[in-house]
Specification:
With about 400 residues, this protein is α/β, with parallel strands linked by helices. Helices cover about 45% and strands about 15% of the residues. It is built from 15 helices and 14 strands. The strands form four sheets. A six-stranded mixed sheet has the order 3-4-14-9-10-13, sandwiched between helices. The structure holds pyridoxal-5'-phosphate (PLP). Pyridoxal-5'-phosphate binds next to helix 5, helix 10 and helix 14.
Amino acid sequence: MTDAADGSRPAPGSAVEATHMGDPDDRGRFGDFGGRFVPESLVPACQELEAAFRAAWSDDAFHTELDDRLRTYAGRPSPVTEAENLSRRLGVRVLLKREDLNHTGSHKINNVIGQALLTRHMGKKRLIAETGAGQHGVAAATAAALFDLDCVVYMGEVDVERQALNVFRMELLGAEVRPVSSGSRTLKDAINEAMRDWVASVETTHYCIGSVMGPHPYPWMVRELQRVIGDEARVQSKELLDGGDPDLVVACVGGGSNAAGIFAGFAEGPARLVGVQPDGGAAIGRGLPGVVHGSASLLLQDEHGQVSEAHSVSAGLDYPGVGPEHAHLAATGRAEYVTVTDAEVLDAFELLSRSEGIIPALEPAHAIAWVAREAGGAIPTGATVLVNLSGRGDKDAEQVMRIRKGTR
Ligand SMILES: Cc1ncc(COP(=O)(O)O)c(C=O)c1O
């Protein structure tokens, strides 16, 4: 978990303006985005968390414990796989960072192990989480079981239906799943409910947010906990590319944690960074500046400034906002943000399955879909493309089967 060329860790708070993914400023801002927009009752909890994170992040013993858990429990490092058949077919060299091989099946485990360790350091015994696709909920329930914490997971009713198997998994792991029936009954509503719970239980409870969103320090803390993806991938791709970097690093963007994690490893290098959003949830592009879930960012809004609903075949990307650092990376031009349609995603789900024997989650199928569409176009023939395969598709197989049979 290092980000300096000499392998040393910079002290938290030592923001270097010239870096693209440096620390946020004193107010938790990345340029015009970020900050801490929460009810007064939550300000002390955010401050306590920030202090705990700063202390832990500059403590070698914390890193030793975290790295050890990631290695022996989550199964890190995840490999980078050469996608030879797909590469031949597309005329570009595709490398896959295999977060799908992590314990619980996605990158979400990196974040929850870190936050569960912090929960213990803060002396709290209860973890709450929100989930869309269910992957963060499963990961949170898993870490809660590992660290003997009580766990409640909020989930929109629509997602409870779409991701029934993950609901069962969470219950099996000892978590209580609370279905949320307000609003669009998806991720944003689950976050609202989790925030309400946190306001009422802050003395005993840590709110384990699943992406690079929420009030400061969450976007920064979650990016740092996911940075392990990019740090590993940079070393691994150098081995495969004779010391060079890939030409492009591509990841799907919901809140944006897997993208932030892999981008962090390459932000100071030459690679083009590309975030792929669902067509119905393009907060960067179609969104406007606003405040949602505790931070200033870009979000889909109607003409009255009300948050609009996002639509995506993939529950994990069905979110009208985006993490504030992505809004900043878009504003500075360091990263590009593009969209693909549900139909392209379903094609990519099959394409990767058939060409490589890897069934991707619908979320990273967005990244594959963009690469498949743009190979030979926005991606020059012969380019090297590193795709973050953020999770595996077992959770989505039944939904895709139903779509293909035309029963939904
Ligand atoms: C496999 C997978 N990838 C990506 C995401 C999107 O989250 P983020 O944008 O924070 O990486 C999710 C969310 O549930 C997911 O399950």
